[in-house]
Amino acid sequence: MDRSIEGEKMKLLIRTLNEESKKMYLNHGHFHNGDAGLDLYVLDDVIFNSGDTKLIKFGICCEPEDGKAYYLLPRSSISKTPLRMSNSIGLIDGGYRGEIMASCDNIKDFDYTVKKGERLFQLVACDSSSISYSIVDDLSDSSRGSGGFGSTGK
After folding, report:
1. Which residues contact 63 (CB under 8 A, 6 or more apart)?
2. Burial of 140 (0-12, 13-18, 19+ CB in 10 A)
3. Dihedrals phi, psi of 54, to nearest 5 degrees
4. From CA 51, how far away is CA 53, in angstroms rounded?
């Protein structure tokens, strides 16, 4: 299924990692033509104890058709939670083929649960152009591969 409009500047190919994530992205009720960001769904509840740092997994791998890098950014709604993205911004290399994830810190002194289906993060083109996406069965191989979070150095 292609979720696009004419004049799109960034097209993502998305491989879902399970049937549940496939359903979420095929029926993305919060994606609108011309949006600069593609909201990402949390697949499972994640409990953050006070002070915890954990990964939130989104159950998708992506490939930009143009091979360019893109951003993983928090949505403004994250400010209503005690969570902050650990590295402030996520720059995802165009050749990265691993699962999209966000590392988050609970900066408050109380526990917090991220609920399945919440949308706290989004994928954004580096030039902020609108995004379209297609669900695919496979992504191409790349020299970058699936290593993430500092896997190519210290």
Report:
1. 12, 13, 15, 94, 97, 139, 140, 142
2. exposed
3. -145, 165
4. 7
Q: What are the tokens at 72? A: 């993983």
Question: 102: which 2 tokens?
Answer: 């966000």
Report DSSP state, residue 95: T
Report pLDDT digits (tens) over 9-18: 799 999 999 9
Q: Which of 24-33, 106-115, 137-146 has the lowest mean pLDDT?
A: 137-146
Extents of the domains making up the chain: 2-135
pLDDT, one tens digit per residue, over 90-101 is 999 999 999 999
- Alpha-helix residue ranges (DSSP H) falling in 36-123: none
Domain 2-135: give its CATH superfamily.
Answer: Deoxyuridine triphosphatase (dUTPase) (2.70.40.10)
The Cα 118–Cα 85 span in angstroms is 15
CB atoms under 10 Å from CB of 76, counted, come to 9
Alpha-carbon span 112 to 108, nearest angstrom: 9
Chain centre to alpha carbon of residue 10: 15
